[in-house]
Task: inverse folding
């Protein structure tokens, strides 16, 4: 995966939104959730600029370009899901997590943050690395459990885990 300055900035901005939105969920902090929403337009604009920059490289073979655009779209979807989670927190009178939900959110915060840092460091090809596989396993478990929970916040957490796994897969190609 070719990392441009735009992509690095997009990953950094998305990593910040990811961490802030999950901390807002765990702390039931509407102020933090509003911070995520305030930066939303900037992240979406940056994602569009990053995709445009990918398309500007005429020398990139079509299959590689397609993979890079899918990867950028995955990172943009992580940002959009962070926005959705922040909206759910701001729009709720009180976000109360059950102990098991709190654990899932904490695992997602840890594993998802780690995976975003791995992607930013260009470590996506190190699927044989134990830490990379362990992080993927934790994300897969959150995705599975989030799909079975009916609460909006946990469904969003599960969707975040799924999209992070997809981004990892697209970054490896």
Result:
């Amino acid at each position: 995966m070719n990392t441009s300055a735009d992509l690095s900035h997009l990953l950094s901005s998305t990593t910040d939104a990811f961490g802030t939105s999950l901390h807002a969920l765990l702390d039931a902090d509407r102020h933090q959730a509003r911070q995520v929403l305030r930066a939303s337009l900037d992240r979406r604009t940056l994602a569009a600029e990053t995709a445009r920059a990918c398309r500007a490289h005429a020398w990139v073979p079509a299959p590689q370009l397609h993979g890079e655009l899918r990867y950028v779209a995955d990172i943009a979807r992580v940002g959009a899901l962070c926005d959705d989670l922040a909206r759910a927190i701001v729009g709720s009178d009180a976000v109360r997590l059950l102990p098991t939900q709190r654990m899932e959110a904490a695992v997602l915060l840890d594993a998802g943050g780690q995976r975003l840092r791995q992607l930013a460091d260009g470590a996506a090809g190190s699927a044989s690395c134990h830490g990379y596989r362990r992080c993927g396993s934790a994300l897969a478990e959150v995705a599975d459990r989030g799909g079975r929970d009916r609460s909006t916040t946990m469904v969003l957490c599960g969707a975040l885990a799924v999209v992070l796994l997809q981004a990892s897969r697209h970054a490896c190609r």
The CA atoms of residues 40 and 121 lie 23 Å apart. DSSP finds seven helices and no strands in the chain. The two ends are 7 Å apart (CA to CA).
